[in-house]
Amino acid sequence: MEKNIKFSANVILVDVSFLDETVSNIKSFLAERLGRELPDMDLPAWFTCLALDAGLREGDNEIQVLLVHDGEMPVLPHCCPANLKELDGMACRTSLGELVFSCVNTAGMVTSADLFLDLMNLALDSADVKRLALVPFHRLYADRVEEELRKFFDKKEEKGEAGCQALYFMMAAPQTPVPCVCDSVLYSLSHVLGVQPEEL
Fold it and tell me: What are the sequence ranges of the domains in the chain?
């Protein structure tokens, strides 16, 4: 892994496999439960919701979105845009600032979990990163993320250092405490799919 990656002050790190599986499952489940078809998920709108949940507010912020995937550039059938190749290297303006998208491929060298953890640790160690939002593939490797977060923040506490603000988004609460802000990813996903809180 290249060590001199340039990070923005605000980083959202997402495992694409989690996004693909979760959006498909949630959309199918909620459509059946609510008795109506749900729209495809607007990715820029969802990343804006994640940034809001992470504490970012309106302004001229740069938000770096890193999309980790393995193999060929995937197509997300329930998202818009669906083709990540078209999204890679692009940017768009929102009320919070500018979203800048980068798709990061494992290139067959490591697993997506290993790549996610490498990028997470590099971002945590970077002096440039002030806010890091994490959306790993919980079902497959979330416990590894939690273990790495504990190691990182335990070291920071021992040294009396603050470090960046990490925000961990998941489907369910972790089994053991994690030394960072934890939040459910379900609310932002449901909101962008057009589901009202009272419908959940």
Answer: 11-199
